[in-house]
Amino acid sequence: MNNDEINIFIPAAGRGERLRPVTEHIPKPLVPVLGRPVLQHVLDKVSSLPFGKIGINVHHKKEAVEEWVSRCRLKDRIVLFPEKEMLGTGGALKNAEGLLKERTFLVHNSDVLSDINIWSLLEHHRSSGNSATLAVHDCPEFNNLSVDGRGLLRGVNRRAGAGDRLMAFTGVAVYEPEFIDFLPGGASGVTDAWMSALSAGRRIGTFDATGCYWTDIGRPAAYAYAVFRSLRNEGEAVYIHPSVRGCINIDLQGYVVIESGCMIDRGVSLKNCILLRGTRIGTGAGEVREPSRLENCIVGPAFRIDIGEPETAGPGGSGGQPIGDGGSDRRYYRIRKGNESTVLMQCGGDDPDFERHMEYTEFFSRHSVPVPRLIEADAGRRQAVFEDAGDISLYSYLKCPREDAETENIYRRVIDLMLMLHTDLTAHVQECPLLSERIFDYGHLRWETDYFIGRFVRDLMNTRIENPAGLEREFHRLALRVDSFPRAVIHRDLQCRNIMVMKGGEMRLIDFQGARMGPPAYDAASVLWDPYHRLQDDMRDRLVRYYIDKAAGKPGWAYDGNRFRDTLLPCRLQRHMQALGAYGFLSSVKGKKYFLKYVPEALRLLKEDISQCGDEYPGLYRLIMRLRS
Description:
The protein is an alpha/beta fold.
């Protein structure tokens, strides 16, 4: 037996009465959070510790839990403890005495999601001499434990004495095997055993986890909060289970989660909704189903639960809802202006793009480029209020599987917007000096390739550069070539996360404050060879032809079709190196680890690019082909 190992116990027998009617169909441990049961989330967390066995008690819908465990990757290390009658929080531990008396053990409730550092909890317990160490936090809604200044438990369901404070139990604790002796046979509560241990002179200590994320999924609103927060942590607004097929003319807004086995009719509108397994939305084939417009609810095969607006916290008491999940350091909040939903943008005092954003917005709007309408600005406070363009970017919109024709049609509309920048807006660019004088030139192109080498190759990939001088010469030639192409107004970050799809299908371009005068092919590379959404090759070819044909009829267009195609590959190389540099920076420096999931596709695209021009850039070819995502 490894003395460092612990055993683990996960209570999972409860009926989940506060979560009814969900738990009438799904046992609470198997309620999904983005396609994975909450029990899986807990197992993934606790199995990072050195452990021997994991005990799980079962009662309500135990067959479903047992069947799930039989397919779990940890099944050979899981011991199930069926309960004919509910034994309570203490009786469940006593029923597993044979396992839990072996060694120190961790208990983690199966309905709790948190980022409590369980390694630190375990280390704290082992150095404390406690019989039990409870992870606690200051949560006024649940505070009922009296804890003294040394962090020791004084009592339960009592007022704090002098020098004590009230705290809440998180459902996570570490125990020594001796604690089992304070539990009677049969049904009991673990809090009674805490008090019995205290009376016998044992130490029941605490580990203060205040400030950590914590929620249980015991109530529908808490479950929805956990699901929507998980979406935000993944940098997403929409989750669609891979088994879902056929999102035809579906309107999505807010947060949307569609779990496995759902069927959705044409014309359905969803906002802030969770669709559980087997749900059918719309009316069809003589069968009455859920209505075609749903908002702020959890929906199952035979029920709907209203949950209200997603629970969020605003800035400094403003009541605003934080929005946005990209790489920007700016802060965005949804606020009300009269009867209108608007977005408040707050910039840091040193943000160099605030004035540019204001001027670009006015310029773009004056020439009918669809960007969020500016409602008011406060230059002194570096903040502005804009039209609310919703939460659904083209990236999120395309999460719901679409027919090819619908996807191609929406990309044609994107190209129409892109051409407005490259032609119509370019013809009037002298009206906007901040833009006309901002050139995407050799220096900026070299910055992008240095960014790629520093943030991605060295920092993220930990890869050595074999011939730095030779690589520098190749970057120099590439930058000179791209810098020689005719310029137009370009967005410069025209990827699908920066195109909002509003209710009814209207679009808005966002994050355009980085616009510059540069080669139009850079925008085309950004949106048609986009790591966030992979287009079929034949569809991309048709879209390039569409762009060229539409551009040919525009006054002042500087390219013919062949010449424009010649600019695409160098711009693709530049763009994909820039994107990988950004993913390295955002994940490693800014801590936004969810950007790592886009690295494989961006690297695949870059390898595809360099394979077509490896003879021209042999050093870069060798470097890129060595990289592994």
